[in-house]
Amino acid sequence: LADASVRSITVTGQGVVVASPDAAEIGAGVVSTGATAAAALTENTKRMTAVFEGLKALGVGERELRTSNFSVSPVYARPRDSDAPPEIAGYRVSNMVHVHLRNTADVGRVLDRLVALGANNVSSFEFVISDRYERLQAALADAVKNAHARATLMAEAAGAKVGPVLDIRENAAPGPRPIFAMKAMSESADVPVAGGEETLQVSVQATFAIE
Asked: What is the pTM of this model?
């Protein structure tokens, strides 16, 4: 913290970067049921194989595909007009894959193809900025420059001069503010999606000595 005996000025600086997503993350898969676990697994395997092969045919590489969840669980049912405990009526098999798309232009086409291939569970979807960290670093540098500029303006208005920085810290980052742009929507017959823009904002609190 700054020495209370030193004349100082404390300001908040902000750095803002607006970026368009250049990649996307999709979580999708197949949920199958059957009278036996083996039957449900056989059906699920058939449909998931079609999903994997279809994605690869669209140009999605193996490095962009990752199984995120696989489960086999019983399906219970309570006999009608009975106080008996639930009984196993069948089995459910769920196989989910995480898909990383390096080009947002492929999103609508891939979503459409996933469903056509038999995926009946699309659990997550998100546009992402690949170089998010680098952009945040740039915004942080801008925030520090902005803090110095604000301190200089305030000090000069008060007839003083800004000295060295005494303390500087980054404030808690606010949540992203996506701005959806309709112009980014797919114009084909594929699933319409909008990547829009995201505002990355960083703020710092800085204390400068004043002379």
From this structure: 0.69
